[in-house]
Specification:
Elements (H helix, E strand, L loop, with lengths): L1 H4 L8 E5 L3 H4 L13 E5 L10 E2 L4 E2 L2 H9 L3 H20 L2
Parallel strand pairs: 1-2
Antiparallel strand pairs: 3-4
Amino acid sequence: SAVHHTAMAGPARLLAYVTRLAPFIDSDMISPTVAFPSIELIETRDVRVYFDARDDGVTRWSSPVQTYLELASGGPREQATAMDLRTALLRPLESSS
């Protein structure tokens, strides 16, 4: 969700959480590959990854905090973007005190 919550350009590979992989595997919607994948589906029933998800009417994005956590554990570019997102998330709290 970095492209939704930050100015970061889109990833070469989209990571998406799903509750069940079977509908994707059993259809012709996608085909598995290890060479230049454009999407990675992560099957989980852990409700924490869906907590505070944001819906823009078309797509459901992970929460800004989840996005920050994922970026913060990435490489130097992702970590710098995570710090920018952290600043943006905390700014409203600073002005209200």
